[in-house]
Design goal:
- It is a single chain.
- By secondary structure, the protein is an alpha/beta fold.
- It folds into two domains: 162 residues, Cytidine Deaminase, domain 2; 37 residues.
- The chain is built from seven helices and seven strands, in the order H-H-E-E-E-E-H-E-H-E-H-E-H-H.
- It has a five-stranded mixed sheet with strand order 2-1-5-6-7, sandwiched between helices. Strands 3-4 form a two-stranded antiparallel ribbon.
- Strand 5, helix 4 and strand 6 form a beta-alpha-beta unit.
- Helix 1 crosses helix 2.
- The chain starts with a helix and ends with a helix.
- 30% of the residues are buried.
- Bound molecules: zinc ion (ZN).
Amino acid sequence: MPQAEAIKQLAQKYNVSEKQIQTDIIYLRMCFIFAEQSKAKRLKVGEFVLTKQGIIVPGYNGTAPGTSNECEYVDPNTGNLVSYNHIICGLQNGIYKAAREGIPLVDGTGYSTDSPCPRCGPAAISVNLKRFVYCRQYRIIDHLPIMEEQGIQICHIPYEIVFPEKGSQECSTPNIKKSLRQTWQSMWKQKSMKLLKKMRS
Ligand SMILES: [Zn+2]
């Protein structure tokens, strides 16, 4: 579908102007730039809240200030990369930053590379965001209707519309595959080293 037609359809779907969708796309692209700051290996999430007054409060997923930058560990049973429980999401980091600086978020709009997780959804309700715009769909989405019930307009602009020059490729997937491959490679290396030692002894 041509980009102009896709934008027109999204504007109709969410009952906003085409200009608003075009602006949303620019803001979502900014989220992907913020996401580059994330030290997470599994999924880099970039977000920001645009306040009613037009202030941008950015956030990306990571650890608390001053603590280790390690966001994940390798599960010894599966070899998978697993996020630590103490990781702070992008939106939460933005909310904490706003609290530190005394910036009101009421009636602001959340922009994010990814749909809000089950922890960020209630946080968005608590600070009274009026809109939430995201690009990639996170695997757990059953809390999104609750956000809508509480008056937050959720707007999903798919990756291929945010990045028409890249097509429909999901940029998170190669990262995950790459990190998993690296994990497996290092595990394989350790295993074969052990085996070598055993054979030599
Ligand atoms: Zn979250």
